[in-house]
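Weekly modeling sync, notes
Attendees: S.R. (lead), two postdocs, one rotation student

Agenda item 3: backlog of single-chain predictions. S.R. asked that every request posted to the team notebook include the full sequence so nobody has to chase files. The rotation student volunteered to paste the first one in as an example of the format we agreed on. Action items at the bottom.

Example entry:
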Amino acid sequence: MDTISTIYTYYLQAGQKICTDTRKAEKGALFFALRGPNFNANELAQKALDLGCSCAIIDDANFKTSEKTILVEDSLKTLQAIANHHRKQLSIPVLGITGSNGKTTSKELINAVLSKKFKTLATEGNLNNHIGVTLTLLSITKEHEFAIIEMGANHQGEINDLSEIAEPDFGIITNIGKAHLEGFGGIEGVKKGKSELYKYIAKKKGKIFLHGDDDVLQDLSKDNDKITYGTKKLYDVVGKIKPEAEKVQFAWRTRYTAPELQKAEFIPTNIVGIYNYYNLLCAACVGNYFKVEEKDINDALSNYEPSNNRSQLHKTEKNTLILDYYNANPTSMRAAIENFANINTENKMLILGDMLELGEESIQEHEAIIALLKEKNLNNHLLVVPIFHSIQTEKSFVDSDKAQEYLQSNPSKDKTILIKGSRGIKLEKVLPVL
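Predicted structure, as returned to the notebook:
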């Protein structure tokens, strides 16, 4: 029996319990000693065993202390190989999802819809990197009937690598925008990197769910078998939106019932931002393809509550806040601002943080956002952290602490406030004074 098969047997005997952090060690689990820029978990292998792990997989011979330590060439690659081996034992549909914006929200919406019919497993939070995807696969049990795997990337080749591990039968790219430009090498690099999912699905002869109104995705998906959603009546799922609503309201019909769309009742949701319309429509399309009842699809989407500071509407004693600061890039920032400009309320304010990982295009993209604010007459705004501050010093701050101090001295009341920025800016610090 080879090493992978041996470790996989131990994994099953351990009740599929995997540990990569001794602070979360469980009795009987397999501990994988992973390395990072600032840590080497080989040093904690014996501690993991002392805490009750059944064995430790290490890649440094200096820490082989007993027969319970299994030495491999690379602990991470071994973990990924175990995950792929596990994937090959599964007969359930696996859906892979990526995109520059909206992938986590779309994943949560799809999970809500499919859960109406199937015992599903979906990526927790945004654990969508080379470790998160691997651990998600390894958490699939014989009880599950459907798996939804979110895939994130910040450089070319990563989506292909994750696809080779997860082997999705179905794929979704929510959109392709200006995210992680530094790692991808510009927008063309983003297109190439994200479209690796389409290429893998085509090679596997699987299907994709295509945002048909997106010309870029249409062009990239020419070789794919596709199920389409959008606003044109020839798509498999056709939708419309109520643009003036505070929270997204939309209606959908299939290609065969599209003539009824004009008379269809709008589905109310708890999600803010017209840009989330296609995420909702995508979830309806996936649910319809897998034969979830229409009333169950509508119920799932209507009752979904956004979390993790993504498109959340939050009312305090003083103001109405639109919380959208989990992440930010030029595409999502522009969409959020344009949506905010169209909201029918007079007393508006924006608190915007820097967009990170844009490389050489950083200054240019931040300047474009400031120009957009002027174009939309959104003059009541605060800009937080160095890049914005270097472009516009008036009502801009070098960090969130300085912004909080300003807001404490200049309190806001009865305002609708959009809070948008990259996670690393820590815009949550301003919430207590709003």
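Discussion: group reviewed the output briefly. DSSP finds 16 helices and 21 strands in the chain.
Action items: rotation student to repeat for the remaining queue; S.R. to check formatting next week.
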